[in-house]
Amino acid sequence: MNGKIFIMDNDFERLKEWVDHRRYPSFRAKQILEWLNKGTINPEQMTNIPKNIRDALSEDFVTDSFRVVEEWTSEKDGTKKWLFELHDGHRIETVLMPYSTGLSVCISSQAGCKMGCSFCASAKAGFGRDLTCGELLAQVTLPSALVNERISRVVIMGIGEPFDNFEQLKRFFRMINDESGPNIGARHITVSTCGLIPQMIEFMCIGMQVNLAVSLHASNDLLRRQLMPIAHRYPLNELIDACRQYVEKTGRRITFEYALLAGVNDTDEQARELARLLRGIHCHINLIAANEFPGGAYKKSSKERAVSFMSVLEKNKMTVTLRREMGSDIMAACGQLRRGMQETL
User: Fold this and answer.
1) pLDDT above 50 for 192
2) What is the band of 342 on the pLDDT scale with cuts at 50, 70, 90?
3) 5-6 and 61-62 as β-strands: parallel, antiparallel, unpaired?
4) Out of 123-127, 146-150, 221-225, 306-310, least confident range
5) What is this structure's pTM?
6) How far is 234 from 215, CA to CA, in rounded Å?
7) Which of 251, 160, 51 is nearest to 168 (CA)?
8) Angle of CA points 336, 340, 341, to nearest 5°
9) Model confidence over 28-55: pLDDT tens digits?
10) Measuring CA to CA, which residue among 175, 151, 140 is closest to residue 12?
């Protein structure tokens, strides 16, 4: 970037500093931020900004990013997926899901992922780099602009491990929650982690009411190590201890994500083992009908098996739901995002 930062990495304070440095009228900072909040990255489209200021923005910041390479719309449920190309050629995928309660957007936190989970398509794409806070934010403002509707909820569950990019993630929380920004409430934001315990401990201390989801996907260490390499670094007992600490410190319910893989982690006995593991934790179990992708080693559990698994958990007094599949026909569902790999999906 030759020392330039992405234009959307600027919050109001940074824009005020830039305007002052350039000796422009102070009110221009608010005008520029209003355009950024609308998803406008190209200064040439900021119609109430004088040309000399638009030129200066293009000169001082990266503004040629987030080119829409492709857009898909699900015929099943109206879910949309975009493949965005960033200024340096990296590609990321962002998903917009319509619900009766409003629009929810699933954003990526990295271009690629280091975690290597065996059931996730993103692992096959390799790792490119961390995304900046502004690149996280753009995945909220741009889809909103593209469909001309306000986003009501944000889930950070796309490509990448959010807690592996924790410093930018914290800045994103502040920017999206700011009254001068998109002003989306913290309780309408959910971040998912595969279990990076040090960052989980720090997260519970930042004082924001952002929801936490932990990708579990197994009820014992042996299986979790087969599915998720991170389990070699952080054993299940340490992860569950951290989850208990989170609930005790914050008073908030934690969500456990569990993708059902046929013949792998979906037996009734594994459901009972999961209930024993989580007993006493104020939690919600979100069962996911794991979605298949080309080259993947796993098949999703049958509807009957998923219902049986859920029934066992309910009999063990666990709060559980089976997540509705969204965008499966456009490879937009959980575990299917691939960082725009050049192959037929």
Assistant:
1) yes
2) very low
3) parallel
4) 123-127
5) 0.93
6) 13
7) 160
8) 90
9) 999 999 999 999 999 999 999 999 999 9
10) 175
Measured from the Cβ of residue 291, the count of other Cβ atoms closer than 10 Å reads: 21
Q: Residue 177: what residue type? A: N
How far is residue 109 from each of residues 168, 177, 296, measured CA to CA in Å? 9, 17, 22
In the chain, the amino acid numbered 92 is I
Q: Per-domain residue ranges for the chain?
A: 5-51, 67-330
Q: Which residue's structure tokens are 């741009």?
A: 142
H or E element that contains 128: strand 127-130
Instruction: Count CB-CB contacts under 10 A for residue 343.
Output: 9
pLDDT per residue as tens digits for the range 297-336? 788 899 999 999 999 999 999 999 998 766 666 665 555 5
Task: Give 81: exposed, middle or buried? Use CB within 10 Å, 0-12, 13-18, 19+.
Answer: buried
- Residues designated as active site: 93, 334
* The CATH number fitting domain 67-330, selected from 3.30.70.240, 3.20.20.70, 1.50.40.10, 1.20.1250.20: 3.20.20.70
d(CA 172, CA 249): 23
Residue 45, φ and ψ in degrees, nearest 5? -95, 0
Strands (E), the chain: 5-6, 61-62, 67-73, 80-85, 91-99, 102-106, 110-112, 127-130, 151-156, 189-193, 211-215, 254-260, 283-289, 320-322
Structure token digits, residue 128: 């490119």
Reduced to 3 states (helix: H, G, I; strand: E, B; else coil), residue 2 is coil
Scored b (16 or more CB within 10 A) or e, 128-140 reads: bebbbbbbbbbbb
Eight-state DSSP code of residue 45: G
Q: Give the side-chain half-sphere CA count within 13 A for 285.
A: 30
